[in-house]
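Dear support,

I submitted the protein below through the web form. The confirmation email said the job was done, but the results page showed an empty box. After a refresh the structure appeared. I'm attaching both so you can tell me whether what I see now is the final result or a partial one.
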Amino acid sequence: MARQGGFRGRRGGGGGTGGGGGGRKKKVCRFCVAPRENILDWKNVPLLKRYLDDDARIRKARQTGTCRKHQAQLATAIKVAREMALIPFVPE
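What the results page shows now:
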């Protein structure tokens, strides 16, 4: 009883007879693409709120698509904004 089709654990998904394709489009870091429009600063509250979930926690980089460098800067900016009482620590 040989298995038919592609290997299920592989990236790209799609199933069927291998070949990849399918799958999701890779997210790009919006701070790397357009650094002038997306200034990462603790005073830019509307931008920072975009990276918080419903429980006021910082969203993961794989959810938002930010690179490692900007995810670290984003986390620092959110923490500073919380200390300055611009962003709540807990949801309202």
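Response: this is the final, complete result; the empty box was a page-load delay. The domain at 41-83 is CATH 4.10.640.10 (30s Ribosomal Protein S18).
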